[in-house]
Amino acid sequence: MFRASETQGTLFGGYNRLIDWVGKETFYAYLGENGRRIFDDELFREWYCADNGRPCVCPSTLALTTILQMYDRCSDQEAVDRTKFDDRWKVALNLEEGDKPFAKSTLQEFRAKLLLHDAAEALFLRLSLGEAKRFDLLNGSKLKTVLDTSPLLGRGAVQDTYNLVAEGIKILCRALSGVTGDKLEVLAKRLDLSRYVDRKVSLKGGAGIDWSNDSERRVFLNSIVADAERLLSHSAKLKAVATEKQQALMTQAEELLQRLISQDTEPDPSQPGKVRIRQGTAKDRMPSATDPEIRHGRKSASKRFDGHKLATATDPSSGMITAVDVLPGNAPDSQNALKMTEAVEANTGLIVEKTVGDCAYGPGETRQEYVEAGRTLVAKVPAPPSNQPFHKTHFQVSDESVTCPVGQTTEDFKWVKSDQGPRVKQFYFPVPVCQACPHRDACLRTKDKSGGRTVTLHPQEDLLQAAREFQQTEEFRQDLRDRQQAEHGIARMMQLGARQARYVGRAKTKVQAVVTATVLNLLILFSLSLKASAISPVSSSDHEVPQLPQTQRQADDDRDPSQETAAATSGVWAHRHPDGVRGGPVSEASSSRGDPRIW
């Protein structure tokens, strides 16, 4: 049954008792003063029954605990313990001495409700963005947004082929044990699969083979695959006596095991009927059986990771995170870019005037999506290699002709299929012209340097050409500077623990990312609240107000408010407190200088 917190609070609550001890200029005090107003209980009312059951734990308490958990980077059990013993948390949650507000399962159930109602972004990120308007942030009619991504490491264990298939066998055995009513170990022993569920020794540890011997490795692999196929056959027979729910679990486990086998093995040409380790990596390979949604990803040619990609949208003037998404680890950075822009508008209630991204957001297909949606996308077109003076970008290209760097022009073309799919024009220069050119060796792509040079247009060639021209303007250079704010925001989220997924599955990981972004936004607002409270009116009867010189007063009048906001928010992360504790009180020296330090 729904229950709301007391609006007035209690005399002996943690905020009143401990605020001087914890410190008024701390993030915990900020949450204690503003948290229940931001995360109003009424926003969660539809999750609970109105007139039946026991009264629930106040949703605002659970929401604030989720914020504190991400801020202090602690587990569910530690979060429960801190509500009992940590004075800082008692201030933030306004708990009385001896209060035990909830159990670990209650906190887990709250996250499950967030997933069930798909409400994490609406009840965390949007609320923090709404609070920003109290500080005159995001109050305009239009805004600019900056997109960026960063690797997010998956929660599941990344395993090799042998252990992957073995884990798939164990998962299917667990599903079958629910049908037969046997314990997992009993079922595995009856099916002669005990080595896959034995917790005393790992599968590879108990194999007893010479791992440097290719023949022994193949025999071991084929024995695992044979066991998997035998188990799949047994599972098909049991489906006849399984309930509908059990059949769904069995089907899911069967598909997982079949995929693990097919992605990592292939027929052995030297031994008919046998398999070997697949040569090369299968497309969209699943590296973990315990977290099937993580993927191999690359941030660069030399940096590989296993997990997801964190995608963020940032307001460059304030540093606020305005939208969050979690993409597959092997997805291109520009995937769902347009949806991210639309999400910014939904979260802020403002129109996005311009979207800025790095080179990864510059493919022609992404630019075309934005043009068709009537939106503006600014993304750098990759520069040509410095050692290729006759790269395509050095040619003057139009839809009617192509002129090479030495002034030769051709209007001859043929239609060819592009790498992106659509048919495009491919211009070609006469062979005699190219063969007589002194730059033939540097210009021609063929090994024997025969024939003439060809230039193939991109399906969105006009958009790419316009982007290259825009890159020469001062407006583009300003957009490029604004893009750095997205990198700063992601770096701050990583400081709050966003680099490592806490949960299995992309949906749960997105909840983590949304809450982490909300913590970052609240820290920015906390910093601004400190700055606002440091400016107090002074009575002219008590103190003489010093007058600034005319030139200084004029300089103050000409200040850019956005730069002032950026300077204030940068202080959130630039310093630590004297005691080295995040959210600890600011020293008198730093407070007198108006320097808000909360990190």
Count of separate DSSP helical elements: 22
Taking all Cα atoms into account, the compactness measure Rg is 31 Å
Per DSSP, what share of the residues sits in E-state strands of 2 or more residues? 5-15%
The helix fraction, in percent, is: 40-55%
Ends apart, CA distance between termini: 39 Å
Q: What is the strand tally?
A: 14
Mean pLDDT: 86
Profile the largest sheet: 6 strands, mixed
Category from helices, strands and their pairing: alpha+beta
Poorly predicted regions are 536-559, 561-599
Which descriptor suits the 3D outline? flat
Key structural traits:
single chain, alpha+beta, 3-stranded antiparallel beta sheet, 22 helices, 46% helix
Characterization of the model:
This protein is an alpha+beta fold and 599 residues long. Helices cover 46% and strands 12% of the residues. It contains 22 helices and 14 strands. The strands form 4 sheets. Strands 1, 4, 5, 6, 7 and 8 form a 6-stranded mixed beta sheet that branches. The longest helix is centred in the C-terminal third of the chain and has 29 residues, at 506-534. The chain is flat. The model is unreliable at 536-559 and 561-599 (pLDDT under 50).
